[in-house]
Structure formats: C-alpha cells, structure tokens
Design brief:
Sugar ABC transporter permease; 0% strand; globular; 69% helix; 294 residues
Length: 294
C-alpha cells in the first residue's frame, strides 16, 4: 500500500499540473519570447530584436507617465483603503455603532458587482450633465463644485482613485472585522477602564493584533494598484490627455491599437517583474514580530 500511493498521487496531480502548465506557465513563457521580437500579431513573421523593446521603453515618455500613475496608486490606494477599512471595522466591531449589521451590508455591497458594472455605474455617476454627482451638487446649490470629472486632466485620475477605494474598502471592512472578532474583549474593556481614547485603542491594541491581516491586505492592494487596467479602460481609456494612463492600459493600446505585440509583451514582462518585486518588498517591509494572545 505504501508503494502503491505514488501512482495514485500521480494520477491526481499530473493532469492538474499539465493543465496548469499549458494554460498558465506556457503563456508566460511565450510572452517572454515574444517580448524579444518585433511581432505585429497578424502573421507568423517576426524578427528577433533581443532587448531592443526594453531599451525603447526606457525612453518612452508614455510609459514613464503610466508608471508614474501606477506609483501614485501604489502609495495611495493601500494607505487610504486600509485606513478607512480599519476605522469602519473598529466602529462596527469594537465600539458597536448602532445599525452595525446594516452598515456592513452597505460597505460590502460593491463586492457583489463586477468590475465592468462598477466602471459603467461610476461613469454615469460622473457624467457632467446627467450624472448623480453633479446633479446632487447643483441641488445643494454648489454649482461651482460641479466638474467634468472624467474629462478634466486635473481631476480624472483622482476620480478613478476614488472609485477604486470605494470598490475595495468594503471587502477589507469585513476582513478586518472578522479578525477583530478573535481579539479578547477583556483587552478593550481594560483599555476603556484606563481611559484610552478610540484612536489610542485602535493604534495600540487593534492594529498590532491585526498586523498579519493588514500585511495580506497591503500585498493584495499593491497588486491591484499595479494593474488598475479594467476600471481605466472602461471609464477613460487612459484619457483625457493620458492623465489616467496606467501600465496595463499602455500594454493594451500598444498591442491592439498600434499592433506592436512584441513591445506590448515587453511591457507585460516589465509589469510581471514589477509586481513580483513590489510583492516581495511589501512582505519584507511590513514584516514584524508576531504578537500572540490567549
């Protein structure tokens, strides 16, 4: 029986590994190969150009612009989302705000919507003429604040960022809330008796005990910030004037608008290594001594 387990394991694992290799590993390998060619995607003819595509990316101002926007998202999206999620979770689970169950449903509601639905929904909300946002501002007599949210290069990026935070904060409210349920209530009761403020309780008790969960949230949000393609493509397609362009959108435009699949694959390879590097860096930077309680 001991020797017979290996054929059984192979029978279960090999088909799954084969499918994974064919549908996941193989496309990655092909992207690396294509990135070193000038393939246009419409024929089997291509020339081997080596690292020329990557050298061109170094001097591409559009690529630098897209990287800058991804860098801003990488800094702002995790920070804003995690801070808001921790605050809301603390209010709902630690301080027991009235109607906590209803608020949890409201916060989590965006999670049941696909990215496509969220993009189309907020594109209509931001509509300068018939959108809900400008309509509400005008109804309140704040006409001066009404803007062409997705048509103004100075505002469009921040409008996209707001949608990304709105779409993701609910999930982390629930995630942090579930983690808070495992923290002994005696710790909070002792802090309250000592006269600790809500901010001090969140900073000195809740956050250290939730650090592993926060670390995971940071990594996932960092990966999301390096992508951001779906919302940008649906809402602005990188405009106006490339003010919302991100690396994923740049890759899409280079491949399907300019028919430069070799260059687009090079952008994909850069994005792959950026994501891998940022993930490892985030795990190392946020690493700290585990705090245990019983």
């Amino acid at each position: 029986m001991k020797h017979g387990k290996y054929p059984l394991l192979a029978a279960f694992l090999l088909p799954a590994l084969g499918l994974y290799g064919y549908f996941v590993i193989s496309p990655y390998a092909q992207a690396f190969v294509i990135s070193a060619t000038d393939w246009h995607g419409l024929s089997n003819e291509f020339n081997w150009v080596g690292l020329d595509n990557f050298k061109r990316l170094l001097s591409d101002e559009y690529m630098r612009n897209a990287l800058w926007h991804n860098a801003l998202l990488l800094i702002l999206l995790p920070v804003i989302t995690i801070v808001l999620a921790l605050f809301f979770s603390s209010m709902l689970n630690v301080h027991r705000a009235k109607g906590a169950g209803l608020y949890k449903i409201i916060y989590f509601a965006p999670q049941v919507l696909s990215v496509a639905v969220i993009g189309v929904l907020w594109k209509e909300i931001y509509n300068p003429r018939s959108g809900l946002l400008n309509g509400t501002l005008r109804a309140l007599g704040l006409d001066g604040l009404a803007k062409t949210w997705l048509g103004d290069p100075a505002v469009a990026f921040w409008a996209i960022l707001a949608v990304m935070v709105w779409a993701n904060v609910g999930f982390y409210v629930v995630l942090f809330g579930a983690a808070m349920q495992s923290i002994p209530k005696e710790l909070y009761e002792a802090a309250e008796l000592d006269g600790s403020s809500r901010w001090a309780t969140l900073w000195r008790i809740t956050l250290p005990l939730l650090w592993d969960t926060v670390q995971v949230a940071w990594v996932y949000l960092a990966i999301l910030a390096l992508d951001g393609f779906a919302l940008v493509q649906i809402m602005t397609r990188g405009g106006p004037n490339f003010s919302t362009d991100v690396v994923g959108q740049r890759m899409y435009d280079v491949a399907f608008s300019e028919n430069k699949f070799g260059m687009a694959s090079a952008i994909g390879v850069v994005l792959f290594f950026l994501t891998l590097t940022i993930t490892v860096a985030a795990l190392r930077i946020t690493r700290r001594e585990r705090i245990e309680f019983s």
